[in-house]
């Protein structure tokens, strides 16, 4: 389908789809293990869809600001691959889904070698954060923020300091994971410094339009179609999209592939980034989460649109 008519169709139907999905917010809970996240509006739902020609369709609470959380893991993985190359990254982190929760430590000891199963679970993403180049944690974090700003085409992207502090103060599970990884020789450097880099990139604040623009760069093979600039090597995008498909929705990735059929990544703030390869970037937010930590209404909305528009890749 040609983009203009597809976007016109989306513009016509998006409000009705958001209205039909919004009731699903009541079936979920806003994350509270990072106390600051519990302040998010439970019944919010918003979406922005951005096409390669710059046309966008938005509906609902698309201007709500939220933190990237686990969505940031896709982009720190890409930066780590660009900094170190594939061999060095995959010496420290695997390529397989776990079937466990995103913050599970179970398989770190159970299955050898004791490296995290993939870069999108917390243990893997913390390891990836340790691989970002920079002479200090501040420099690493600044490089990440700068990279994310370019991907979002938004020089104003910044940390949500409240969420960052809230997670730093309460992130003992992640801290214990990092100590285990360090003892195993997987994670190098000081645990507190690595976690500071990790907590900071999780706390970068966006809205649906920012997320859609970051998604569009992935959809277009690493080129920002709005500027023509290549921001990511094609191979790194290919790796990231593959992980999004196999592990992006945690241990609901199989179900999401069947019901929606698009590469995607969710975060505990209720954000979901999804791509229609070659064509569209999508940013969704709906803070009420299902039992597996994905946005209840956000997943329902993506399922509806993908089915209506026949977007599944499979
Ligand atoms: N910062 C969050 C954490 O480490 C990210 C997890 C997520 O979004 N699933 O717990």
TrEMBL record:
One of the GO BP terms on file: L-glutamine catabolic process
Class of the enzyme per the UniProt entry, highest EC level: hydrolase
The entry's keywords: Acetylation, Hydrolase
Protein name: Glutaminase
Catalytic activity: L-glutamine + H2O = L-glutamate + NH4(+)
Family: Belongs to the glutaminase family.
Gene3D superfamilies: DD-peptidase/beta-lactamase superfamily (3.40.710.10)
Source organism of the structure: Cohnella fermenti
UniProt xrefs under Pfam families: Glutaminase
Gene name of the record: glsA
